[in-house]
């Protein structure tokens, strides 16, 4: 029998929104570095962003600035605070992956959609408005005082929804930010959107889809 959750919960950036941190970084440093060094800077910037969110909550502008400064230092690139601010301020302008609006809207006809995002409230509203589907509830790291992959945000989300982990399906393109934590918290129904960010890891017991156009079929829609 096809599982029909009370809510479908989502990561937003990367999974739904085309999270163009790599493009933003290239737009600033692309003329200064050859391709090999540019690719390494992008990888390090992503790794340091993950490291920055593992501690106590701080505004996402600080996460971006600290991570970029560390990545620049590691790669022998001059860091300027205004570059970090420019990247941070791009975030609300980013829209969804092309596959998102139609698939998301189809699911929303039958099941309420919820977003748990590592975002500031001032950022996320613009990104959610571009998704092309009604979202029942949005919770940000700013709301809950914690970033994923820490558990606090997931716990706050379940409390806000008044349901248990067995009653939701969580959808993400990231194991490290979302699906590992969801697994540890007992969210049995998980969907991995394989956008090429990370390799498959079947240990975490998920349904794999190529993009959001495949999500309605997960629920028999």
Automatic annotation (TrEMBL):
<keyword id="KW-0378">Hydrolase</keyword>
<protein>
    <submittedName>
        <fullName>2-haloacid dehalogenase</fullName>
    </submittedName>
</protein>
<dbReference type="InterPro" id="IPR036412">
    <property type="entry name" value="HAD-like_sf"/>
</dbReference>
<dbReference type="Pfam" id="PF00702">
    <property type="entry name" value="Hydrolase"/>
</dbReference>
<dbReference type="InterPro" id="IPR006328">
    <property type="entry name" value="2-HAD"/>
</dbReference>
<dbReference type="InterPro" id="IPR023214">
    <property type="entry name" value="HAD_sf"/>
</dbReference>
<dbReference type="GO" id="GO:0019120">
    <property type="term" value="F:hydrolase activity, acting on acid halide bonds, in C-halide compounds"/>
</dbReference>
<dbReference type="InterPro" id="IPR051540">
    <property type="entry name" value="S-2-haloacid_dehalogenase"/>
</dbReference>
<dbReference type="InterPro" id="IPR006439">
    <property type="entry name" value="HAD-SF_hydro_IA"/>
</dbReference>
